[in-house]
């Protein structure tokens, strides 16, 4: 039986900050998981372009980066904005706790004054594959990475960023990041740890969740594994080792909202919310999706499409990313870069709700598998599926602009096939799936969820909140705050992440498979795999 929240005041509010490559959000939740206030801000990504043989054209080099100065501004602006929203409804004094979700594997460097040494490399930086291969060669291969950390070192992990920084191009005297910049780096910090430092002024601390997404942490012990830095040239290993933050426990607050930030946001003197260790967005989406027990799978349909689960054991196969959750178990993850941004390419970005309603109605009139029309959705590469280069391709031919129903339904089906391959990978790695939840912006669409349920041939539990990462950050912060308060009050009964989920995560409905579609979609999944590998 779940433990109730006993130490936090019943009126307490918790803010979940969510920093992603698509935007920044701050949502205030009560202790029952209801959203009482929210604010949203943009994210400004830096992408590099190079000239081609035609001086009128440029090409995307694949670099994806975020300015740490911009992140600092997001933290300040989001705090200011959510404080104003809470003040407007007379609830500012109820803000007690904050948690943070941020993109997995994104990381950057700051100096001793906390100013950026360089921008943060993003998780979807398309240049990392060659540097990852270079680092694996030095390390001794993927088997060595698994031996040292318990899980594979994937391309997008932060260790690949360090290898990129250390790479010296042929004919060049220095690495891509100058030696002087390596030496003036005080901290290498992941996206969430950096956001938390800007929020609290506590530097050099990172959660288990953040640290697990670097490829450097031993997943079995929650400690840095120095030998993983053998992926770097010898002259950079000691410098890198000295810039890693301390790994901290989830139940100990990082600190309170910094005084200068509180004054800027107009917080009253007695309101200095405690900020708890951060979650990578995949971990946040998992707990925000109510999946904390083995066999529970959380699907997040956002800018990226993700299949997550937790387990007491590491996967038995290396076909999934393996990380560690702040509250103890391992996180199994299959993350696809091609989610909502793929839909934006097909139907156009920034569609209104009314426009999406019309598009969905048109798609609902189309039969499953769209009369043989399908699409490979790979605007970006998907290394986990062996797709090394972008492959956005319609078969047998692209539908005309007037065939909006076919275009939308085929796109929904492509995303559903990606998710199905992710679920199959979890099962192949040893997961016994007992429940599947779904959240994220695309999950608002009833037809998308019905198609996904039919492809999986499983019922899907849809969350009340479509802000799984922000809710997950809030749930984890409440778990930490209540556990910390119980320890201070010498209350013997523990309070766990599962207890916080029981209090705050709610399901809206259960979407069953459409029986008449199941067989067609099983055949469609087989054909999708053949096209993908062809």
Pick out its properties.
7-stranded mixed sheet, 17 helices, 37% helix
Could you please describe the fold and organization of this structure?
This protein is globular. With 534 residues, the chain is of the alpha+beta class. It has 17 helices and 25 strands. The model has no long low-confidence stretch (mean pLDDT 92).
The total of helices stands at 17
Average pLDDT number: 92
pLDDT below 50 for ≥5 consecutive residues: which ranges? Answer: none
**Overall radius of gyration:** 23 Å
Helix content: 25-40%
Annotation, overall tally of beta strands: 25
Class from helix and strand fractions: alpha+beta
Beta-strand content bin: 15-25%
Report on the biggest sheet.
Answer: 7 strands, mixed
| Quaternary class | single chain
Overall outline:
globular
User: Distance between termini?
Assistant: 51 Å
Summarize the structure.
The protein is an alpha+beta fold.
List the helices and strands and how they pair.
Blueprint: E1 13-19, E2 24-30, E3 35-41, E4 45-51, E5 58-66, H1 68-88, E6 95-102, E7 107-110, E8 116-121, H2 128-139, H3 142-149, H4 158-166, H5 179-183, E9 187-190, H6 191-200, E10 205-207, H7 208-212, E11 217-218, E12 223-224, H8 234-242, E13 246-248, E14 255-256, H9 259-265, E15 274-275, E16 279-280, H10 281-288, E17 296-301, E18 305-311, E19 321-324, E20 330-336, H11 340-347, H12 353-364, E21 374-378, E22 391-395, H13 404-428, E23 435-439, H14 446-456, E24 460-463, H15 468-488, H16 497-504, E25 507-511, H17 515-533
Parallel strand pairs: 1-6, 6-15, 6-16, 10-13, 17-23, 23-24
Antiparallel strand pairs: 1-2, 2-3, 4-5, 5-8, 7-8, 7-9, 11-12, 14-15, 17-18, 18-20, 19-20, 21-22, 24-25
């Amino acid at each position: 039986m779940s433990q109730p929240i006993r130490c936090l005041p019943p009126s307490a509010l918790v803010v979940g900050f969510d920093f992603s490559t698509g935007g920044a959000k701050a949502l205030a939740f009560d202790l029952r998981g209801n959203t009482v206030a929210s604010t949203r801000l943009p994210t400004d990504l830096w992408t590099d372009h190079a000239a081609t043989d035609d001086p009128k054209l440029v090409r995307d080099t694949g670099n994806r980066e975020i300015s740490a100065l911009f992140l600092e501004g997001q933290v300040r602006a989001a705090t200011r904005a959510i404080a104003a929203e809470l003040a407007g409804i007379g609830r500012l004094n109820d803000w007690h706790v904050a948690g943070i979700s941020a993109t997995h594997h994104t990381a950057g460097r700051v100096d001793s004054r906390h100013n950026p040494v360089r921008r943060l490399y993003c998780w979807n930086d398309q240049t990392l594959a060659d540097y990852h291969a270079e680092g694996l060669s030095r390390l001794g291969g993927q088997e060595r990475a698994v031996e040292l950390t318990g899980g594979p070192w994937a391309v997008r992990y932060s260790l690949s960023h360090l290898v990129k920084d250390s790479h010296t191009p042929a004919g060049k005297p220095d690495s891509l990041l100058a030696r002087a910049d390596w030496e003036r780096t005080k901290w290498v910090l992941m996206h969430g740890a950096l956001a938390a430092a800007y929020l609290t002024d506590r530097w050099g601390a990172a959660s288990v969740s953040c640290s697990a997404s670097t490829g450097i942490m031993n997943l079995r012990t929650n400690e840095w594994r120095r030998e993983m830095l053998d992926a770097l040239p010898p002259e950079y290993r000691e410098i890198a080792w000295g810039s890693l933050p301390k790994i901290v426990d989830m139940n100990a607050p990082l600190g309170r909202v910094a005084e200068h930030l509180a004054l800027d946001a107009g917080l009253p003197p007695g309101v200095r919310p405690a900020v708890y260790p951060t979650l990578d967005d995949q971990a946040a989406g998992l707990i925000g999706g109510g999946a904390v027990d083995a066999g529970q799978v959380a699907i997040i349909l956002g800018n990226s499409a993700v299949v997550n689960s937790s387990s007491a054991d590491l996967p038995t196969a290396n076909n999934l990313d393996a990380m560690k959750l702040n509250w103890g178990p391992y996180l199994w993850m299959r993350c696809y870069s091609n989610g909502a941004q793929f839909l934006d390419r097909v139907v156009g970005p920034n569609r209104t709700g009314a426009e999406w309603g019309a598009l969905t109605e048109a798609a609902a009139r189309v039969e499953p598998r769209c009369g043989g029309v399908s699409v490979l959705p790979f605007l970006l590469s998907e290394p986990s599926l062996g797709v090394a280069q972008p492959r956005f391709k319609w078969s047998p031919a692209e539908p005309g602009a007037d065939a909006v129903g076919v275009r939308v339904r085929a796109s929904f089906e492509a995303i559903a096939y990606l998710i199905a391959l992710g679920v199959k990978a979890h099962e192949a790695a040893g997961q016994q799936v007992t429940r599947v939840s779904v959240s994220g912006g695309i999950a608002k669409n009833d037809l998308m969820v019905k198609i996904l349920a039919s492809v999986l041939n499983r019922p899907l539990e849809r969350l009340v909140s479509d802000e799984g990462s922000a809710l997950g950050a809030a749930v984890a912060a409440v778990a930490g705050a209540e556990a910390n308060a119980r320890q201070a009050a010498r209350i013997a009964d523990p309070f766990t992440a599962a207890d916080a989920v029981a209090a705050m995560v709610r399901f809206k409905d259960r979407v069953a498979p459409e029986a008449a579609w199941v067989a067609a979609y099983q055949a469609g999944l087989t054909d999708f795999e053949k096209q993908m590998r062809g």
